[in-house]
Batch of 4 targets.
Target 1
Amino acid sequence: MNKITLSLLAALSAIPAFADVEYKLSIDQPAHHLGDVKVIFPKTSQAHLDIHLPDWRTGRYEILDLANGIRFFEAKSENGENLQWKKIDKNTWRIHLDEPTEVNVSYQVYANQLGMRSRHIDDSHAFIDASGFFMFSDSFRQEPVTVDLDVPKGWRSVSGMDFADDKHSFKADNYDILLDSPIETGINDLYKFEVDGRKYELVIWGEGNYDVELMLSDLKKLVKTGSLIWHDYPYERYVFMVHATSGARGATEHLNSTIIQRHRDSFAKRDDYIGFIATAAHEFIHTWNVKNYRPAGLVPYDYIAPNYSDLLWLSEGSTSYLENYLLLSAGITSNEEFYKDLNKTISRHLKTPGREVQSAAETSFDKWINAGGDHGRNFSTNIYSEGSLVSLALDIDLLDKSEGKVSYRDVHSELYKQFKLPKSFNSQDVQNILKQISGRDYSTWWKENVESPLSIDFDALLATVGLEYTRPDNSKAVAGLDVMAKSNGELLILSHVARESSAWQGGLTAGDKLVALDGRQVRKSLKDSLALFEPEQEVSVSFIRRHQLMTTKVKLTSDFDKPKKVKAVKAPTERQAKLYKAWTGVEHPNAIYTNPQ
């Protein structure tokens, strides 16, 4: 045998054999949020095996340090002999191998991060996002995996993954699919339905004031709307997971499912219910946008480092924008409810001074470090609201210039067709698509609206589609201070002072405790306190900082007692009505003709 053949055989012997990675999670101390994990990695002849727990989870672009809940780590050979190992960074364990062997790892997980939707165990259930439970090795990341659960009697296990050997056992083609297919196991209610040949499940953990029949009815309407944007569905089965909790709230998209968390008493009121079904629509859209096409920098996912992209506004903000289109088109929400949500987004944008500082592209790239609070509101924005408004401006521009024939939905349709995973796209790719579908160059528009802080003339923009952004006729001018404050009983504590406002220039800052305005003790709300004064009036502000009483002069601003609202114009032109329908999928509420289309 020649030297080349010997070298080739030696190299091949170091490559792991094709075999399943086997995971087992045992839960016998649920009240203490503890689970025991065992992992069997296939036989390998590597000199060492590095295994990691992810440092973040998909859908939440933030380092979470998930390895902080790992204890009692052990590594053994296939013969049960202890293997030497050393932790080489905060979430990597290096196991030394003297001879070829499969590697058996065990450790304990503390799972009490319900609100992060990464891991949670208690005496009624476990929510299992693999990023918080199951370690991986790059050597075996593409190998098939199985997951076996040993859970308390009476628990039911549900996942978007396929079942394996029994009702608490699942399988996936590789670790990436496992990581994007959470498991809900515990005491829950399960409802199954079918729409257009695809199977769906709704699993609910926790009691609440929800109406299951209404949820099922609207989910059936919602899942039919995918074809309004994309040419096919990327799944045959999809699971809606709902947590009715006492505190945690939020949601996360996954490859074949979503997890939605809401307070158990926030389903019954119409506004609360709209919040739930809008969240379901948002995560449903993510099945395409993010889970089947996503920006470069996030393909493939790097689970142990930030994944940077200047297009997260498109991944998240566009999804927020499109969710309302699906809900309105499906007849789940009304025109008025559509306007109300749009109004909320515009109002939030206009009350965020950071909109003048940070562009949609910049806030996307900085998502991993952007913080909230007073400084965040003054100097930053976020991928959701800015992305939604960039999408709105782009959508109406496309509709306007094409007489309703081309819309922003076409952009996402083409992204799915041209850049389905494992491909990825960048900003230039999106601009190329815009040119393909519209015949126009959007490079200047992109620089002005995506790469620069967004500045929209909402009056002109909304008028294009037969809407207006106005105050109620009976609005009155009132004094303002351009701050946010909460009462602690006797004082008003500032949580935000708008950048460059008169209050800012007067030296007030977040954390100051307002005592009096012109010698008059503040009332239980800022609104009531300011009601005693006139717009543009200069007042003396007494406040406490560092336990000392201080005073400054501030000129009050001119505000209004009622905010501006989005509403339909009373008599839209034929063109406005036409573009409105092309935009929303429904007739303008005040249209005086029936669109022949």
Target 2
Amino acid sequence: MTKNNKKAKITFAHINDTHSNFEPSSISLNLPQHVLNTETSVYASCGGFSRISSAVNELKSEAFLNQREFMFLHAGDCFQGTLYFSLYKGVANAVLLNAIGVEAMALGNHELDMGNNSVADFLDQTHFPLLSGNWDLSQEDQTKPNPLRDKANVFAYDNQTQTAKYITKDVHGEPIAIFGLAIENMAGIANPDPDTHFMNVTTVARNTVQHLNQQGINKIVVLSHLGYEHDIELAQEVDGIGAIIGGHTHTMQGDFTNIGYGKTDQYAHMVNNTCVVQAGCNALAVGHVTLEFAQDGKVEQAFGANQLLLGRQFTVDAGRTEHLENEEHDIVRDFLSKQDNIRFVVKDPIIENILNEHYRPAVRALQTEEIAVINEPLRHIRIPDSRGPSQIAPWVVESFVWKARKLGYDVDFGIHNAGGVRCSFNPGVITPADIAGKLLPFAIGIMIYSVKGKRIRQALEGAIDNAISNGVDGTGDGSFPYVADLRFTYRCCSVKGTRIETLEHLKDGEWIPVEDEKVYTSVSSGYTATGKEGYAPLLDYAKEPKPINVTMADAFEDFAKQKKSFDAPVNNNTIYFPCTGNEDVA
């Protein structure tokens, strides 16, 4: 096979998990003591799409000057995260990813939070392929408004060859094949349509490598949204992959102790002759890896770095209003300019113009409208601790119930997972931007569904078991349930199936027991209503989940406007007894 193959050199610039962070972020840099003869924290403007665009253009020029090919990749999860997504869904991402020059993207789980149709609409506007090589679209219902299967820019699973469809990058006559892999358990953490499903990652990768080798292609790159540890496992299990460029776990690979952050392996981590890289999250950094392939397809050399993309001004406050003295400012900039993991870049005026002309005005308007007042600190925590449960999640669930009833639905109560609430609130005014950009940044709709009382009991127990890994292989503490017009007691040490000791709902101002065989109507996010992370008993419904075309953020914003002010909830409806003692920590 190597007889006609040639050596190849290429630089890949890569980003992942950008989550609609088109604007820069303010980050704190903890400088070594020797820089200013004291331990100093300074704040800098970091990242954003305008800086990514400039950095990628610089990296492309550097690659060409060194006679290397170049390609710019996104390893998935561009959806969700900020007010830009809340307002514009996938449209702004499509326009801006096109503009910064992305050449291929992996399918992330958040792309599927709202089902396949959002992905289909996104792809109708993008100029690059979506690599999703283990996504089987062969049984997709073609009567849908916008089917995915036959779109030219979808490179999914090939049911006939049982391999991933792939693209090739020509490097001076030598092809490099690139295919994508997404999380197998997509149905467990997102909302793909039930007529499409995901194949085993390792099997598809192994089959595809073998298939490519039979085609005479021995230089192979995987664009992955599996997570860093799974990328390493894949490299160990499947031979013949030159590099895995990944996302999902927000891993900022490299040594960042020089600015007060941690260290995660060496960038361009080699595993079983496969180079594994990932570039953090939220558009703060760009990774760039140069691969030098031997004639036989093995990677002879892999080098590069993750670089934080900084502006040139430093302040002593997070609000970036109080600047350093001139002399100190120059010293800090001189130190940082010598660090391999820092790149100073100016903003690309083309990207700035797109943002200014089409998107920023509406975002800025929502950042200044005052809709309610927070009277005291409202803490959000997922699992109740010695200080109690979340003080903001119950208000969020109450907003779902209130909104559903306002729309005419006869709702008994509401349930929401703690991970769907993303921040605490300090006292002061809140704006729509605080709600849609911080508190409830996932643009997921709420749904009405009807189930028997015993299924509610089982779902609450299953969700808490999942959150604390109580006899199950949990997926994280975000599944812990918060409720409105419902209250329960969970005792961790009880026998499985009996851990929900009391379960009552509020009816005409009185608390009455939830009956196992009686059917109740509940409202939840689309994520919870479709049985994710321990909530599977809700899928045994008397009336299937029905979307009411309102997002979580929309419901809470409308609720906040009429409520006008918030205190901590008076009552605790989630009584939680942990396994480590008999004390009621609620």
Target 3
Amino acid sequence: MPEETSTNIPGVPASEPASLEEPTTPREPLPPKPDQRGPEAVSPTGSPTGAPETARAQSGQYLTTAQGLRLRDTDHSLKAGSRGPILLQDHHLREKITHFDHERIPERVVHARGAGAHGVFRSYGTAANITRAGFLAKDVETPVFVRFSTVLGSRGSADAVRDTRGFSTKFYTDEGTYDLVGNNIPVFFIQDGIKFPDVVHAAKPHPDREIPQAQSAHDTFWDFVSLHTEAQAHTMWNMSDRGIPRSYRTMEGFGVHTFRFVNDEGRTTLVKFHWKPKQGVHSLLWEEAQIINGMDPDFHRRDLADAIEAGAYPEWELGVQTFPDTEDQMFEGIDLLDPTKFVPEELAPVQPIGVMMLNANPTNYFAETEQVAFHPGHLVPGIDVTNDPLLQVRLFSYLDTQISRLGGPNFGQIPINRPQSPVNDMLRDGMHQQAVHSGVAPYRPNSLDGGCPFLAGEDVGAFIDVPEEVAAAIKERRNPASFDDHYSQASLFFRSLSPVEQDHVIQAYTFELGKCYEKSIRERQLAALANVDSGLCAAVAQGLGLPAPEATEQGPPSETSPALSQIGKTWPVAGRVVGILADADSDLTAVNAARQALDAQGIVPLVIAPSGGFLGQADDGGVPVQRTYLTARSTEFDAVIVASAAAPAPDAAPGLDAKAGAPGGRVDPRATLLLTEAFRHAKAIASLGAGAAALTAAGIPEDAPGIVAGDDAEALVTELSGLLSAHRVWDRFPARTA
């Protein structure tokens, strides 16, 4: 079969094609795929080794034990005769089974399901006047590893659930490792970290039945957030389209807390971190998400890996909002230490300070993505924490968690966690110690080891704690009065959305509360929504069949923040996925032209045909097939080109594929399903040549918004990419009337 040279289709499982017969000639292990990269090969104490990244991978041509003993058989246990009992002396069996029995480590309590990638961060230098952090100096490039995750689900849960997402970045700077541990939502559920066990217990599956998995549509969650009304702002973000991103590549990230920058003169500035995706912020529709979780529960991690493999490297710009470091740490009436509050960008613009590109997939999920350990206390000179009461608890909790989950205090020596700067910490021994320490005096001062290690001064990069004055105060358990506003920001967020986005929020609240068993919980949350927005409350109450309560608190001002809406801008199209519906009767020259035109714009074209293989002759202008009517679903594609009348395929029978429905008709029912789903999900659709007949059979009006037609493949792709740049054809959604 010839290579596909016109387009870069991701998904190849190995760096070389598999042979039909089992290979029997000994050879060294295959190298990683071109899109993969492992952690930098530094020693457990941060020294460069000069070894390639693959030095830690398996080596040698032959199967061995863990101690390097070559083996001649690994399929049969050592027995007393072919039908006799297995012998205890089978050292290979015992090693193999024992290691297997201990392969799993405790999964994260939250953020258990994740995906990661390697990349590089390049600083613009625009923050150099407010922070002495070396990696933020002009044109400094820093290796990074990023882990994206969902919060509530287990490792085996689905990706496209309505949930908060983690967005955590490990910067391997030459001043030590810096971790920016954030989320895709800038506000949190709670104001004080002492409540963190409570909110997680409430949001996780019910402890008696361990359901529902990876979702908040249940009684304990809404019981908690309706009683702890400080959670209303976060809940509003989560019920919006932000709760179900289209891709990690189209997801914003936030540091959530307020941090402190310190410059060379010791002056301090308060900052909030923002990651802005270069492809814009884009989300799934609720029905899309439900279909995806059944069709492809690995949707987000596959999307990230495939984009990197295809060379469509995702990028985010890192920016900061800056605030004067005043004694009260307030800005425009917003308490900067309250993690349930965000500062609208219209009040404090986000100033870009660098750009991050993810350009390599992990070589091994467990060794890298699963074992990477983040901690907000991993700081570098020039960046310090504040007294945010949630952040203060995280500074303890994250370190404590890593020790438990990764088997001891030496988790920083795991390759993905190793600093890429010198380490001389005087810490010794412990579980999984990988360094071989020398010297006899791991204390200071000492004379036996020549006085080493020495204390550093500020002139050689020491971390200096900000000498913040701690005023005399009464020891007490309470929040400041500025934490008491629980509704104004939820209201600001909702009122800043476009009508179609508001409809999605109404749908989300109605669905989630409709899944609650207890009527009192639904009524209590409606009472909270009444204090957010009366129209929102009335619409949700109508869907629940309950009366809408009156507000009990003074309504907030009617200002809006346009930056909160995801609609109204255009974005680059590289990395999008377009499905091309074709068959043997299609104009294959035009199909190939469309594929090449899409590929030229960095868009991944996937051909959908009645069966796999090639359309036409493989060696004479044939078209390789990536999906079939059986395996394709509209949710995988950002847009669709129909280059076929889509006659029924041989397997268009309910017994072979239930999506085929009842037999009969001129169009394969699965093609009709794909097109009608794409249409109601507001995706651009183009008909090329004979494709117009399939659209007509699906009942899609040719004059509907976002429907284009033509015979010139290149011109059609140009028009389609213009529609793709807006993410969806938003005009296809009628505005809701109150």
Target 4
Amino acid sequence: MRVAIVGGGPGGLYAAALLKRLDPAREITVWERNAPDDTFGFGVVLSDETLGGIEHADPQVYAALQRHFTRWDDIDITHRGTRHTSGGHGFAALGRKRLLEILHNRCRALGVDLRFDSEAPYPAWLAETHDLVIAADGVHSTTREAYAHVFRPHVTTHHCRYIWLATDFPFEAFRFEIAETEHGVMQLHGYPYAPDASTVIIEMREEVWRAAGFADLDVPDSIERCAKIFADPLRGHPLHSNKSAWTTFRTVVNEHWSHENIVLLGDAAHTAHFSIGSGTKLAVEDALALAACLEEQPSVERALAAYEEERKPVVASTQRAARASLEWFENLGLYLGQPPRQFAFNLLTRSRRVTHDNLRLRDARFTESVEREFGCPPGTPPMFTPFRLRDLTLRNRVVVSPMDMYSAVDGLPGDFHLVHLGARALGGAGLVMTEMVCVSAEGRITPGCTGLYTGEQAEGWRRITDFVHAQAPGTAIGVQLGHSGRKGSTKLMWEGIDEPLPDGNWPLVAASPIPYRPDSQTPSELTRDQLNDLREQFTSAAWRAARAGFDLLELHCAHGYLLSGFLSPLTNHRTDAYGGSLDKRLRFPLEVFDAIRGVWPEERPMTVRISATDWAEGGTGAEDAVEIARAFAAHGADAIDVSTGQVVAEERPEYGRSYQTPYADRIRNTVGVPVIAVGAISSWDDVNSLILAGRTDLCALARPHLYDPHWTLHAAAEQSYDGLGVTWPAPYRAGSRRPQTGRTDAPKPRLTLET
């Protein structure tokens, strides 16, 4: 096999060494445009997981690395003059030049042809003359660009400028320093990589960089100025450059990683922000996976398909974590007012890879100090601390999210709703929310949706609230009021979500006459008189909800339903006082909110659910969401329930663990209003992490409560918590201990007899 490798960085070199070691008969050539001792950057951090893979695949490389590693456990975070240290993290780093030298030596010893100061031939020629072409030519990959129509790259440029530098002394820990200057916030990321050297990255938002005058300085003057700004953590030492330049991070994602016998590896295929230190790690792991797939599969074609199938989900997960970390640092200014320990905890858990429980294992003392500062009583996880909205005190921070059940007849909640909501109330959550309860028969999504437009329906809800208050004391129950708008008159979810009814349809109304999908019914644009009628329908439903005994009311302004349809520019094309600018698009939802607040008891809280992004070009975005939340808060909303999407059918959500939380975080820390985070929050560890970091006040969980109605009780049991934040119903107390399982171990042999 003839193998061409374009790019002599760690990923390309390690791939060459592995492939040659596994089959010495392979003819492997590496083209590198730079000289052997040229490199960019300084130190490289590798995880224990990556090192374990290297040790298993090539003990000689591992042994050479081991001799040069600098190791440490601590992370230091300095915030407004106070340094906090968290231990138990475990890092290993070495100089990038040293890493390349080790890989050069290994490749030469194995017989790899290394061609430095050499531009690789054109990719098409390489593909024609070699059995395999590995494109490891970095973020600006010429190979990727030559086949962009196949790989379909998507490159996102972000909002911060950074420069990669070094200093001539070793930090004792991974170091994060914050400088609040007259021009804005700047940050230093630093870590040791040799007994006499540390990597230093200086980062700040583009507007801060320009305001501070860096755009007008050459690199030496920039470096000198950075050294003065961060003189204290640098102990007066100078900063050094290595072909350093101010740049903006670019996230690279490719739809496909291979084409015929060409495959992308490392930064050519994907990038992950330096704040989680995964660039070299991912490239080395790519090389390991590619080599393994070539060994395991019968052909190059099958091997490349297997490689892509194996690595894509891993890389996507890392990129989600890196994106969360990157955005945290982009928005660092939001968190500067946090208490010092909470700020440190927030930074440590920013990527969601380190969590509350994980950090407790690494450094229990630090985590307990954060909990004390937050106000957690001894032995109380953050999720079981109380939270107050007006006169309603929730005993814990868990919310059963609104979930449409499509099980009503003529809008009437029945036995199913009693059992469904009653079971989840008995399950220990602080707040149980109904599904979207419709304010009119025409405002239903499906024929199975519940309503509050008749006295009989109100009595049906009263039966449920009475049960919750009597049988699950301490659990609050809230109602979510809404109107389907253009998304109404559809089949039950399991019969065809968002599909129009085959018969028995009712007319739809919306902000503008735009169907949700091409096959959807076209709604009528609401007239002024109809707007007045709708406002009255919401008010009447709210009055009935109060009489029915609900503790909290949420106005549904999300997911493309009627009020959401006014907020999004994609669904509101009106030219009157209710369309156009965001202020005008907000007008009718705010009128409805004010009307409801006028009849809803003063002591009971009201929340608003919004879609913080439409996940579609030209739609509502994060900045709009902040202004929408600000407007509702100014009108008296006690909390904002922050969801996303479902506004337009052509949306492209970026799914992932707790993927909607950053929007709640931004609203909370910009507007100062309490928020409810929702969206793929599935573990009690995530709830604790988000609450303690100050990214949300409450966490709403949907599917986990379908899987386990007693999710909150079980979360308490699994954390050995038995306090005021959760109460087992008396009939269930015997089940408050986790049941024993069957025996899973087997008796070990006493003797081993040789035959």
